[in-house]
Structures are given as C-alpha cells and as structure tokens.
Amino acid sequence: MSDILSGKTVIVTGAASGIGRAIALGVAGHGAGAVIVSDIQAEPREGGRPTAELIRDLGVQSRFVRADVSKRADNDGLVGAAQEFGGVDVMVLNAGISLRADGFDVAEDDYRRLMSINLDGPLFGAQAAARQMKALGKAGSIVLMGSMGGLAGAGITVAYSTSKGGVTLMAKALADALGPDGIRVNAVAPGTIDTELLRSTPPIAAAAEGFRQRTPLRRLGQPSEVGDAVAFLGSDLSSYITGIALQVDGGLLSVI
Ligand SMILES: NC(=O)c1ccc[n+]([C@@H]2O[C@H](COP(=O)([O-])OP(=O)(O)OC[C@H]3O[C@@H](n4cnc5c(N)ncnc54)[C@H](O)[C@@H]3O)[C@@H](O)[C@H]2O)c1
C-alpha cells in the first residue's frame, strides 16, 4: 500500500479482532518493520487465522504477546517485548469494550470493568511506551482509540461515552506532557464501524442503521479505514499533528 511506516516497530493492543486486527494488518501494509499483535486472546472474535500469522504471510516480522491492558504489569511487559525489534516507535492503544446494558443505571461492576479496560488501559499503555521512547531517545507516536461516543454523548452508552471522552482529553493532556520529548499523542474517533463489537452489542447494533442513514457517506465504516488513519498518525506524514481526535466517521459528527 505504501512505505510511510518504513522501519518502524508498531504495537497494537486488542489486535486479535476487528479494528485492532485491521490496524495491525494496515500498518504492516504501510511498511512497518515489525508489528507486535497484543490481546487477551489470539483468536479473532469474527473467526479466521490469528492476526500475527497473516502479517508474517505479508513478509513482515510479527509476534503475538498476550496482555490484559487493564493490568499495569502486562502493559510494561508488552512494551518490553518490543526491545527485540529495537523498541516501540508507534504504540496503538486500541483495546476496548462496550456493554450490553449501558444506560443511566449501568451496573457498578460493569462500569468498573469497562473503565479499567477503556480508560486505565490506554493510560498504562501510554506510560509504558513513553518511558521506553524517552529512554531510547525515540520521537515516537502514540495513538489512542477514541470514538464518536467520546465526542458526543448517547443515552445508550453512558459508561462507554464517559470512558471515550476521557480518552479524547487523555490524548490532549499527554500531547502536552510528552511533546517536549518529541513524542506525539493523538486519538482516532471512529464512527459506526462494522465489527463484532457493534454486532454483539444489541443497543448499538439496533442504532447502527439510523447512524448509517445520517452519515453523509451513507454507509458503515470498514475497520481497514480506521487502520489507514492510524497509519497516517503513526507516520512522519503527521509530524506536526499532536493532541487531536481524528474523526473517521464518514462525516457523521460533522452534520446535524
Ligand atoms: N466498532 C465500532 O463501531 C467502534 C467505533 C468507535 C470506536 N471503537 C473502538 O475501537 C476499539 C476496537 O473495537 P472493535 O469494534 O474492533 O471491537 P472488537 O470487540 O471487535 O475487538 C476488540 C478486541 O479487544 C480485545 N480485548 C478486550 N478486552 C481486552 C483487554 N482487557 N486487554 C486486551 N485486549 C482486550 C478483544 O479480545 C478483541 O480482540 C475499541 O476501543 C472500541 O471502543 C469501535
């Protein structure tokens, strides 16, 4: 596809399935030197062969590292695994979940589990990556997975929107904290993307057709389209861009 990530080592969390899988395959197609695929499970939720195997088929170095993003030690271990490939250049903190019931009365256990994955996860991952980038003197790029749900609220995703709103501001705060070291931090904010997360979350699946009709491009997004946006933010093509939330939503949030 391109060589915009030539020679770079990329880590992607939640990369067994869906958008993370497409990001991992996408960065490999855009020239990454090595891709570390991380998840709590190697098997894609939607079926098919594990992501790392497909990347190796493309002739790109890849290995799977099992890590639960809600655990600080797992994030540290994951970033440590990149030493084998010269250290991480692009850290993509994609892993996230939605809830089957996420209204105003969301259950406490569900709320805490979601926050630990969607909000603690990216902070611990960004901390681990930034420590290594600083130690190795790398002007790296950290990409956080936000959402249109982190830019506008929805009554069917109260905890989810709260977590993704946090991710949007986390990108801005970390951009300020790490910019002096040359490390950029951005978020991507996908709209309605056709994945298992969407299909297996009944309130979101039910709303998807309405979102599609209001989307200027009149279709759902494909995971690979998020992958291309992440490749751009990870590459030197975006060298003066930090602290943004890049909408990848077919225009949905830009219209009323
Ligand atoms: N699908 C959409 O429409 C959409 C829209 C906006 C944002 N997003 C965000 O994109 C990201 C990926 O979503 P998706 O649709 O590909 O979901 P998905 O369910 O298809 O894939 C998510 C992956 O994350 C992994 N995961 C779950 N908990 C984990 C943990 N604790 N540690 C590590 N990995 C874990 C899962 O095993 C799975 O492989 C999420 O952050 C989601 O919030 C999705």
Automatic annotation (TrEMBL):
Top-level taxon in the UniProt lineage:
Bacteria
Protein name as it appears in the record: NAD(P)-dependent dehydrogenase (Short-subunit alcohol dehydrogenase family)
> Which stretches are annotated as coiled coil?
none
List the keywords (alphabetical): Oxidoreductase
Q: Which GO terms describe its molecular function?
A: oxidoreductase activity, acting on the CH-OH group of donors, NAD or NADP as acceptor
- What PROSITE patterns does this protein's entry cite? ADH_SHORT
Which PANTHER family does the protein's record reference? Answer: 3-OXOACYL-[ACYL-CARRIER-PROTEIN] REDUCTASE, SHORT-CHAIN DEHYDROGENASES/REDUCTASES FAMILY MEMBER
Record family assignment: Belongs to the short-chain dehydrogenases/reductases (SDR) family.
User: Does the entry feature the keyword Kinase, yes or no?
Assistant: no
Span-the-membrane segments of this chain are none
Lineage of the organism = Bacteria, Pseudomonadati, Pseudomonadota, Alphaproteobacteria, Sphingomonadales
